[in-house]
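Quick one, probably user error.
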């Protein structure tokens, strides 16, 4: 018999039973559900709502059930619908009437809300740790490539010279913000909904501060109706994870391009590549491509939960059961992607010569050429026009700004002198960009130090 069967005169239709059941996916909340129940039972006993010896019996029974679940000795039942009712039914079977007192002053609405918050509270630090591990890889790659000049791009066209280290620090700063977003989300959700009941709390003298403290929350939620009727903390987490996956996806796209024969800036380790079933020469960047593809999966989870919640009146509605599969899948996906992406990045080989060769073409030192003229007193817009004419000349003759003869420079402007070649050397172009945040070796070393400080502060 179902725990809520008193009102009904018919058994639930099998189709409805299967449709309504969530035990197939919410079983993973067993630890959180038992922790919440132990805290609730202890509070009920302390408050005199149930006898102390009954509370102790309940707690002992719950601990035994936890041990049996972890030893794979428990088989959950579809008839009991969800993890909450499964555990309560098991408890009652084992300890008798005392088990029936556990639900005093509690609803499945606040029960599931506390379980899910506890689960998210445990998973966010796992994800943060994985991002920080990735940051360590970026630091390592940056330190090894402070002098590795490569083209920077806009519109996927070669634009200005930078270094591979500067590139790594760009992503390091993106992931740094991802960490702080996750930390902010964790701080906001750190309130305990237990004791909110179905929506209007309880007539029993529940001590919600005691259960919040026992479960490691900062405080109880301030409004019982809000406690059970919103999932904004889950939506916020999914938003944070979507942004994180967007950054991983962009980085993956770079790696897919860089390891192609058209770029050949990097080589992927064989252990993090795959081959073709028909083309023996192929070495495919499947890890990067799968991370890029799985990003859409996390986006889908965010849109799912936003859509589920968008029209729900207060308070709890069964629609909200749909939150868990989306939430669990997004967390699982991110926790799958981060370690393998970091390992792939850590083991790839950088090809500095290929990067330098690409940087020598495409006139990526054209802005520096214009700056050379402005430093000699010419207004930037006039310098811009002169360099544009030089580039046009080079395109016709097959030269680059580095190889153009001095007489050709001087034919367009008398301000050019022998020092133009040093000014246009790619390492000069990079290392003269000493502005805070720029690609010079000096600047990038500061950026690396800041990321290291950030990572170490969270160790």
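Nope, works fine. Designed sequence:
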């Amino acid at each position: 018999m179902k725990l809520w069967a008193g009102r009904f005169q018919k058994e639930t239709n099998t189709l409805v039973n299967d449709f309504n059941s969530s035990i197939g996916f919410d079983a993973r909340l067993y630890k959180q559900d038992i922790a919440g129940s132990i805290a609730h039972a202890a509070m009920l006993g302390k408050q005199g709502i149930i006898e102390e010896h009954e509370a102790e019996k309940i707690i002992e029974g719950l601990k035994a059930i936890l041990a049996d679940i972890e030893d794979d000795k428990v088989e959950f039942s579809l008839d009991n619908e969800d993890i909450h009712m499964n555990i309560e039914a098991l408890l009652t079977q084992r300890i008798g009437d005392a088990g029936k007192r556990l639900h005093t002053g509690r609803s499945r609405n606040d029960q599931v809300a506390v379980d899910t918050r506890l689960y998210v509270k445990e998973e966010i630090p796992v994800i943060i740790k994985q991002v920080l591990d990735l940051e360590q890889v970026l630091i390592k790659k940056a330190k090894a490539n402070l002098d590795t000049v490569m083209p920077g791009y806009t519109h996927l066209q070669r634009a200005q010279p930078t270094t591979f280290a500067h590139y790594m620090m760009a992503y390091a700063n993106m992931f740094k913000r991802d960490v702080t977003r996750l930390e902010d989300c964790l701080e906001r959700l750190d309130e305990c909904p237990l004791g909110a009941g179905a929506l209007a709390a309880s007539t029993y003298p529940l001590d919600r501060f005691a259960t919040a403290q026992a479960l490691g929350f900062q405080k109880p939620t301030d409004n019982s109706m809000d406690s059970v009727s919103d999932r904004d903390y889950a939506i916020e987490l999914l938003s944070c994870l979507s942004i994180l996956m967007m950054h991983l996806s962009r980085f993956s796209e770079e790696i897919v391009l860089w390891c192609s024969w058209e770029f050949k800036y990097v080589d992927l380790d064989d252990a993090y590549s795959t081959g073709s079933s028909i083309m023996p020469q192929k070495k495919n960047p499947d890890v990067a491509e799968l991370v890029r593809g799985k990003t859409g999966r996390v986006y889908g989870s965010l849109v799912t939960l936003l859509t589920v919640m968008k029209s729900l009146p207060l308070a709890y509605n069964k629609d909200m059961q749909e939150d868990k599969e989306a939430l669990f899948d997004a967390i699982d996906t991110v926790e799958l992607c981060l370690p393998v992406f970091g390992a792939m990045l850590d083991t790839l080989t950088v090809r500095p010569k290929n990067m330098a060769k690409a940087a020598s073409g495409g006139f990526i030192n054209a802005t520096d050429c214009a700056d050379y003229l402005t430093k000699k007193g010419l207004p930037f817009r006039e310098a811009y026009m002169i360099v544009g004419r030089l580039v046009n000349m080079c395109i016709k003759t097959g030269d680059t700004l580095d190889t153009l003869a001095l007489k050709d420079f001087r034919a367009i402007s008398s301000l050019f002198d022998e020092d133009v070649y040093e000014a246009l050397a790619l390492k000069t172009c990079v290392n003269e960009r000493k502005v805070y945040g720029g690609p010079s070796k000096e600047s990038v070393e500061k950026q690396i130090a800041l990321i290291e400080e950030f990572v170490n502060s969270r160790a």
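The first helix runs from residue 14 to 20.
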